[in-house]
């Protein structure tokens, strides 16, 4: 595990994934390599680790050398894992949180804790957060902040952003949002700019679209009996994962135990391993406060 990066719900992820000798697993969000290392230590297996951030792939080379022949690093989006990975996999794990490395590097522009360029791009390509806030119309800006940040004062924030443009730095945007929300918001335990920064990051990286496509790709890649293990960190992501697994599970395969399954009914793709999301325990919350919003869901691939 790379220094400074603590993988969330690690024991629970391993219990859900059930790595076995000879197995083949996909870590679709390599990040600091915490899950990948734990999987490789748990069994004599192989891991294909994917990340859209080239810095993560570069950092992972030392780990690949340590587990020579058992770890393959792939630069790309996990939404394309079915094309990046040849053949079937016995498990796919997705950690939807932003890597600690990305948050802690001021030049990446993910956090208001450090002043840096307002960037937020995970892959370092395409329009940045600054490009969006400096060109979007007020209505669109308000919509993004409200829907992706779940911010009830989105309209007020959007107006303040429009009035202050151009905006190029994270500290500048954080101050604009804080002033727009007023002194009462500053006394709240959560920083006033948290939801706005979340919304911009999700929008810039199309994180929800990436997740929806990634879940579909994982379904196509998993072998029968393979596990899909997803750790989400906010309600928008968790809702998508929950809906995906329930809609494709055998839980609702027949409307009644007395009724036959319709001839044209879609064959279920997953068996739900946990009916409710798994949350961090008190011990983990004490040692890793960043885990407080984590939710883990698991599905087992059924025969096609």
Task: Describe, in short, the structure shown.
The protein is α/β, with parallel strands linked by helices. The chain has helices at residues 10-17, 34-42, 54-59, 61-66, 81-84, 100-104, 129-135, 138-149, 154-164, 170-181, 183-186, 194-204, 207-221, 235-247, 282-287, and strands at 24-27, 46-51, 71-75, 89-95, 222-232, 270-272, 295-301.
SS-based class: alpha/beta
Terminal CA distance reads 36 Å
Q: Write down the oligomeric state.
A: single chain
Query: What is the strand arrangement across the widest sheet?
Result: 3-2-1-4-5-7-6
Per DSSP, the total helix count is 15
CATH superfamily annotation of the largest domain: Vaccinia Virus protein VP39
CATH class of the largest domain: Alpha Beta
Mean pLDDT: 89
Rounded to an integer in angstroms, the radius of gyration calculated over CA atoms is: 21 Å
Shape: globular
Quick one: biggest sheet? 7 strands, mixed
Number of strands: 7
Q: Give helix % range.
A: 40-55%
CATH architectural designation of the largest domain: 3-Layer(aba) Sandwich
What does this structure look like?
It contains 15 helices and seven strands. It has about 300 residues and is of the alpha/beta class. It has two domains: about 10-100 and about 205-300, Vaccinia Virus protein VP39 (Rossmann fold); about 125-205, Orthogonal Bundle (DNA polymerase, domain 1). It has a seven-stranded mixed β-sheet with strand order 3-2-1-4-5-7-6, sandwiched between helices. The chain is globular and about 60 Å long. It starts with 9 loop residues before the first helix and ends with a strand.
């Amino acid at each position: 595990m790379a220094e400074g990066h603590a993988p969330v719900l690690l024991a629970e992820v391993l219990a859900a994934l059930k790595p076995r000798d000879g197995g083949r697993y996909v870590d679709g969000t390599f990040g600091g390599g915490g899950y990948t290392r734990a999987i490789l230590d748990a069994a004599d297996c192989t891991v294909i680790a994917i990340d859209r951030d080239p810095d993560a792939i570069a950092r992972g080379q030392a780990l690949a050398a340590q587990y020579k022949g058992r770890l393959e690093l792939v630069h790309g989006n996990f939404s394309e894992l079915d094309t990046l990975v040849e053949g079937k996999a016995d498990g796919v794990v997705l950690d939807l949180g932003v890597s600690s490395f990305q948050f802690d590097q001021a030049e990446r522009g993910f956090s208001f804790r450090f002043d840096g360029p307002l960037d937020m791009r995970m892959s370092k390509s395409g329009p940045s957060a600054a490009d969006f806030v400096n060109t979007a119309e007020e209505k669109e800006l308000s919509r993004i902040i409200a829907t992706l940040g779940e911010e009830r004062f989105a309209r007020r924030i959007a107006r303040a952003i429009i009035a202050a443009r151009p905006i190029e730095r994270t500290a500048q945007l954080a101050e604009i949002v804080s002033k727009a929300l007023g002194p009462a918001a500053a006394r709240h335990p959560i920083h006033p700019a948290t939801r706005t920064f979340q919304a911009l990051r999700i929008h810039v990286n199309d994180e929800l679209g990436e997740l929806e496509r990634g879940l579909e790709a994982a379904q196509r890649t998993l072998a029968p009996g393979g596990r899909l293990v997803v750790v989400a960190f906010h309600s928008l992501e968790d809702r998508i994962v929950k809906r995906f697994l329930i809609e494709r599970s055998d839980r609702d395969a027949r409307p009644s135990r007395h009724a036959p399954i319709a001839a044209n009914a879609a064959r279920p793709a997953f068996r739900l391993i946990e009916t409710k999301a798994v949350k961090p325990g008190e011990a983990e919350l004490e040692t890793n406060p960043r885990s407080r919003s984590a939710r883990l869901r698991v599905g087992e691939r059924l025969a096609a």
